[in-house]
Amino acid sequence: MTQRYGLVIDLERCIGCHTCTMACKVEHGIETGSGIRVETVGGPHPDTPAGTFPDLSMYYLPIPCMHCADPPCREACKAEAIVRREDGIVFVDESKCNGCGECLAACPYGALFYDEDRHAARKCDLCRERLDEGFEPFCAVCCPEEAIRIGDLNDRSGALIRAIKERKGYTLKPERKTGAAVYYLPPLPRRKA
Amino acid sequence: MSFGRPVRIGPGETVVRTVCPYGCGIGCGVLAHVKDGRLVKVEPGDFRGTGHICARGLSTPKLVYHPDRLKYPLRRVGGRGEGKWERISWDEALETVAGKLHKIGERHGKSSRAFVSTGVGALANLLTVGFAGASGGTFILPAGLGDSAGPCADQAMYGAFMWFGEDYSNRFDRPPAFCLVWGNNPAETEPFKWRRIREARGRGARLVVIDPRFTTTAAKADEWIPIRPGTDAALALGLMHVILERNLFDAAFLMRHTVAPFLVRADTGAFLREKDIAPTGSDKYMVWDAKTESPASFDSPHRVPAISGSYTVAGFDCRTAFQLLTELIAQYPPRRVSEITGVPAGTIVRLALDYASHRPAAIYRGMGCTRGSFHGDLSFRAINTLAALTGNVRTKAPPAHVYNMGAFFTHGVPSFVTLLQMYEAVAAGKPHPIKALWMTRHNLINQDPNFNRITRELLPKLELVVAVDMFMSTSARYADIVLPVCSHFECDDLIASIGSGSHEFMQLQQKVIEPLYESKSDLEIYAALARKMGIEGFLDKSVKEYLEILLASGHPSMAGITLDRLREGPMPPAPYDAPAYATPSGRIEFYVERLKPFGQELPVYLEPMESPLSPLAKRYPLTFSSTHPKYRLHSMFANVSWIREIDPEPVLNIHPADAEPRGIRDGHLVRVFNDRGEAVLKARVHQGIRPGLVNTGQGWSPEHYAKGTHQALTHETLNPAQAAIYEPNSAFYDTLVEVEPVKEALR
Predict the structure, then answer these.
(1) Which of A110, B23, B263, B468 is most buried (most C-beta within 10 Å)?
(2) Interface predicted TM-score (ipTM) over 0.95
(3) pLDDT tens-place string over residues A9-33
(4) Burial environment of residue B429 by CB neighbours within 10 A (0 to 12, 13 to 18, 19 or more)
(5) What is the 3-state secondary structure (H, E, C) of A17-60?
(6) Helix (H), strand (E) at residue B264
(7) How near does any CA of chain B get to the CA of A144, in Å?
(8) Residue in B closest to A57 by C-alpha
(9) Chain A residue at shortest CA distance from B690
(10) Checking DSSP bridges between strand B223-225 and strand B206-210, what pairing results, if any?
(11) Three-point CA angle B324, B326, B332, nearest 5°
(12) CATH topology classification for B615-746
């Protein structure tokens, strides 16, 4: 079987520092927006918790493109500007993109954004140019907690699949049946004294 | 050259390992990608198998090529702060400054010319101190800008300075089995250090976080204890109470490594010395030998020193230091501590047992303790004493690089004034007048306490204000002459390990691009000013020569460290022997003789100065803190668009229990105020903050607020006990305020 690129993001490790968001801007020269955003799972604002003082909880959720097996954005793109490679990478072919924004609305994860400077939809492409030359995506390189790992989801004995099994990794919005390739490892339970 | 991992280098790019030297204190190694003389990207540099960078570090090219960078020297043409400038040449700028410095020196004495700088780099620091010395001026010691209470405590107890570090209570020869993070938020402010805690937790250590705010670190913890701000010493005393009561203390450690058995004279509060009881005796400390029931010097053989008790020795009433500590601790049973700290008594008992039953157990203290109370040094001393009581203190000095500073003091040593003394020096001429203020890479007017006193009372008394900066900072706005300094990618420096606790490497900050516009390096600026002022033979060497001089200290820590090796990567200090505790006794001094005049010889608990229990709280019932944010380094990066996209504006964090009775609604403007000033910003109403406390992230400038600024609320009261040990600290969070809604019309 050919390889299928996927990400495992460890939510126990993620500290909400937005280094991944910035790394994406740096690597892809994105003035406004990023291929990966970081949401707070907690209160109504960034860095605020759920619950009632002092029983509170909060964690962070980095959201890149899920590199779906069956991408709703591709479905929605009439210009056929969204391409899914053999290895699972979904990317925007900016030469074909007419900036209509249908893909932004179609994505269940809000992973696409409109680049005003380039008049095109943009999104995470797993740093495909880097990958093709043997380098990891820049967000994974920069993450200070090494919370983002890339690997082959088709390798049943690979590190990604092992981590997903061990930590009960999950995908976002499974009910949408997108075949997301980004798995999240949930925060670990708190320890009692 | 090896970067320790595969690094993708674009066509036409060269990659240089340099360092991000800013004030978070971590000093991450970075790889700078340069193409056609332009910095195109930075990424994490190798730290011998690991690496680290943050969102700010990644955004530094935006800082370097920021459209607002100062491009040439400016002279003020309007009133101070009015924002009217004219471009002048470097020659004219330095001529003007030199002339004014000369005149001010003649009129008010040379020491009336004060210089201040902050920087992690050796050159960035030493050039300003050295120039102040060479010109006969004053250097303003900047640690009191929130950083000095920790060193006060550690100097008194360990004889060591650790800027942000807490190596003594958490770096042991094996990983900790229990982690207590106290008034500290490393997951947001020092992620490099946070890794060690996360890894310890991964190996099974429980993590408890004490903080009135539900920070990212608190969110990662097994237990969060939201303490009343500024009461940390009381909690530490309460924990010690439980530990003593249950006999969980480490008597052997106390006897061997602390002043526990030393006899203290009741009449003077000093340690009893041999010479006190024998005319020909030495300075040796005395203990009570339980075997012979007689006094003995602490190092006499075959003695069995008593750890506790009261004894009469040659007519002197004495108690052991541990006895005195025990009597202090006895006053802090969990129930009383619960009333002071707001932490339930059951939680205090559980935490004490948890901490005392694990070895090693680590404590990671932070500035929440030292900025959280006017007596922040006592908070740290009480915590240090807790660590010593259970033997959780390292018995080897943390290694550090000792470099050679001599070349910068060939023409004299400056007068020194601490940051908080500066206010009276400018306002009242004490201890001596300050009439000129030179700030290099130091946004004093934005970051120092009591903004309105600085701008309204101090600035009018200054005859010359010079700002050397990359941007038109708040300080530069109020200056007479503004000089453009280059970024850290445009000049070389040496970044030593600074005891941050993140890593211990020395690194080279390498010039990777030419200085932009007319900006100059610190060395070029000071050398040129020295020539203008007629200071001969000072700063006449090249930067490479100075770096080599810095390395040639001959200190064993520097063995094998050369410029060539540093160009390749970071270097740890070479191992060397140093006393674990450079205190007068060579032991951990939980009892500090020289603080007896202040009643602080033991780590007593004192209420914060602006306590919610004080009469002032009738008018200003809320405690206000301005903590380190994860998106700025003090005032740096607040102007970077990529950062502002994530963190757009200042907000006041306030609990619904405080917001609702005041009619404050989420997202609406509020006015935070006290007798000193005000700040108007948006309220962020949520559960993640202890009722009674309101908080904002520091580093915003007046231009970012609808009105006022957070530093208009803080105070500069000088703590004399801290001054007796080291530099007195700005207790930024020991501040009371009231908050009220603001009509949207103000926007």
Answers:
(1) B263
(2) yes
(3) 999 999 999 999 999 999 999 999 9
(4) middle
(5) CCHHHHHHHHHHCCCCCCCCEEEEECCCCCCCCEEECCEEECEE
(6) strand B263-265
(7) 5
(8) B219
(9) A53
(10) parallel
(11) 120
(12) Barwin-like endoglucanases (2.40.40)
Instruction: Measure CB to CB from residue A134 to each of B6, B52, B194 and give the nearest one.
Output: B6
Q: For residues B637 and B319, what is the distance between their CA atoms, to the nearest angstrom? A: 54
Among the partner residues A43, A60, A134, nearest to B686 by beta-carbon distance: A43
Q: Does A134 touch chain B (CB under 8 A)?
A: yes
CA A23, CA A140: separation in Å to the nearest integer? 9
pLDDT reported for residue B500: 62
Q: Assess A166–B contact: CB distance below 8 Å, yes or no.
A: no
**What length does chain A have?**
193
CA distance B111 to chain A (A): 44
Is the CB of B191 less than 8 angstroms away from the CB of A43? no
Domain map (residue ranges) of chain B: 615-746
Rounded to a whole number of angstroms, the distance from the CA of A82 to the nearest CA of chain B is 26
Phi, psi of B469 (to 5 degrees): -150, 165
Query: A37-74: per-residue pLDDT in tens?
Result: 999 999 999 999 999 999 999 999 999 999 999 999 99
- A19·B198 Cβ contact <8 A: no
**Which of chain B's residues have a Cβ under 8 Å away from the Cβ of A26?**
41-43, 58-59, 61
All residues at 6 or more sequence positions from B410 whose CB lies less than 8 Å from its CB, including other chains: B134, B537, B538
Most B CBs within 10 Å: which of A142, A143, A148, A167, as the mutation test of the B interface? Answer: A142
* Euclidean distance between CA atoms B737 and B688, whole angstroms: 19
Q: What are phi and psi of B723, to 5 degrees?
A: -65, -30
